[in-house]
Specification:
By secondary structure, the protein is of the alpha+beta class. 20% of the residues lie in helices and 29% in strands. The chain is built from 4 helices and 13 strands. Strands 3, 4, 5, 9, 10 and 11 form a 6-stranded antiparallel beta sheet that branches. Strand 1 and strand 2 form a beta hairpin. The longest helix has 25 residues. The termini are far apart.
C-alpha cells in the first residue's frame, strides 16, 4: 500500500524568488585608459597613461607650376634616355632608331598630348610603316630600308614612350619593335645602315661592337669547320694499278 502522507510534508514555495532577488548590473566607468587582470586574488585594475602622437602633416608647395613640372619630369625621367633609344642607330628630325642582331626599334616623334587609343600602326608589304591618328588620317608613312619579318598575327608591336633628351627637353615617341628578315637558314641577318630609304645619315656598321664579335666568332667557326672536313677525309691512300 502506498503512503501518500509524505507529500503533505513537502514545501513547494519558490525559494529562489525570496533568497536570490534579481539585481541590476553594477557598471564602473574609468576616466583613464585602464586594463583589468583576473588573478588569484581577484580582479586587478591597472591605469595606463596613453600618450597620443600628433598626426603627421605634410607641407605642399603651393606653386602650381613647380608641382606640375615635378610630376611631368618624373614621368619622363623614368623612361630611357635618347642615347638608349639610338644604340647602333641614329637620331633624325622625325624619328630615332636602334638595332640588335635580330631586332630594330624605331621611335617616331609625336606630340606629347597624343594618346595610344587614338593611334594605329601598320606594317604593309614587309617594308612600309604607316601610322594613323584617329580623325586626322595618316601622320607617318615611310618605306623601310630593309625588309622585316611580320608577326604571325599581322600585328605590330608598339607602345608610347617618354624620355628627356640631352637638352632636358621632353620627348614622346611611338616605340615600334620590328624583327629583322632572316637570310638563308635563319641564322644570318643584316645590320642596318639606316632605318628608312630616304634617311640621309648612314651608320658605319663595321664599327658596331656586336658585329665585330660576331665576325670573329664566324671566322673561328669557319676555321674549325675547315679542319673538321679535312680530318673527315682521312689519310690519302694510293692504290697501285700497274698490274
Amino acid at each position: 500500500m502506498v503512503d501518500y502522507s509524505k507529500w503533505d510534508r513537502m514545501n513547494f514555495e519558490d525559494a529562489d524568488e525570496d533568497e536570490n532577488p534579481k539585481k541590476k548590473p553594477h557598471v564602473t566607468r574609468f576616466q583613464k585608459p585602464t586594463s583589468i587582470t583576473l588573478g588569484k586574488e581577484g580582479l586587478e585594475v591597472h591605469s595606463e597613461s596613453k600618450q597620443k602622437t600628433p598626426p603627421t602633416t605634410t607641407t605642399i608647395n603651393n606653386t602650381s607650376s613647380s608641382s606640375a613640372s615635378s610630376s611631368i619630369t618624373s614621368s619622363y625621367s623614368s623612361a630611357q634616355t635618347e642615347k638608349g633609344f639610338s644604340v647602333n642607330g641614329a637620331i633624325t628630325t622625325t624619328h630615332l632608331w636602334s638595332q640588335t642582331h635580330s631586332e630594330v626599334m624605331i621611335g617616331i616623334f609625336i606630340d606629347e598630348n597624343l594618346r595610344a587609343k587614338n593611334l594605329s600602326v601598320e606594317l604593309i608589304s614587309e617594308t612600309f610603316l604607316k601610322v594613323t591618328e584617329k580623325d586626322k588620317g595618316v601622320i607617318f608613312n615611310k618605306e623601310l630600308a630593309y625588309k622585316v619579318d611580320p608577326n604571325e598575327d599581322g600585328l605590330v608591336d608598339w607602345e608610347i614612350s617618354n624620355y628627356l633628351n640631352e637638352q632636358n627637353e621632353k620627348k614622346r615617341i611611338i616605340k615600334i619593335t620590328l624583327k629583322k628578315m632572316s637570310l638563308g637558314e635563319g641564322f644570318i641577318r643584316v645590320w642596318w645602315k639606316k632605318a628608312f630609304i630616304d634617311d640621309s645619315e648612314e651608320v658605319d656598321v663595321s664599327a658596331i661592337p656586336e658585329r665585330k664579335k660576331q665576325k670573329e666568332t664566324k671566322n673561328v667557326w669557319e676555321e674549325a669547320h675547315k679542319l673538321f672536313l679535312e680530318k673527315k677525309k682521312g689519310p690519302r691512300i694510293d692504290i697501285d694499278t700497274s698490274n
